[in-house]
Amino acid sequence: MISLNAAISTQKAINTKFDDAVITQNKKVNRFYEEISIILGFILAAFSFIGLNISKIPKIDDDLFPKFLIINLSLIVVLIVLFGIIKFLIFDNIKKNHIIGWIISLIVSMVCLLTIIGFLSPKEEERTFKRYKNEEIKTQKIYEDKIEDLKDIIEKQKVDIDNLKEDIDRLERNQDKISK
């Protein structure tokens, strides 16, 4: 009986070691997946920043710096939310401190974004108003030039019509002279 108890104890010890090894291995695998997802997240963020900045910066007319900040802070907010959702869905070991860190990062980014937009907005409205006013003036000038061109064409046509009338009158007089 002693050997059976010893065998059971030994088996329990071996099972405990295997359970510990499985738990350790699961932690290593989860940590590996977490590190891979972090690396992929950084790659995604880098390509997002590069791609967005390359495509949008040449299209910015004026005030490059504030608009650059708005574009990049918007991207930061989106990436924070995206990575927060991914981390929440994939990993079981999210602690309350991590969630609070994500929320604080999101709030700080949103406040910065709204502050920049708030300071930029009145200038942007004024600039847009001036741009549209200038475009309206240019369009009005183009139409005035076209009207002047049309007036010149009409005047030339009137002269041509008057010349034709004179020719018709002259031909009619000649016709009358010939018929008498």
What are the salient characteristics of this protein?
180 residues; mainly alpha; 3 helices; membrane
Question: What do these coordinates show?
Answer:
This protein has a domain of 59 residues. It has three helices and no strands. Helix 2 packs across helix 3. It is rod-shaped and about 160 Å long. It starts with a helix and ends with a helix. The model has no long low-confidence stretch (mean pLDDT 81).
SSE topology sketch:
Blueprint: H1 2-56, H2 64-90, H3 96-179
Coiled coil: 140-174
Keywords: Coiled coil, Membrane, Transmembrane, Transmembrane helix
Transmembrane segments: 36-55, 67-90, 102-121
Short overview:
The protein has 180 residues and is mostly helical. 92% of the residues lie in helices and 0% in strands.
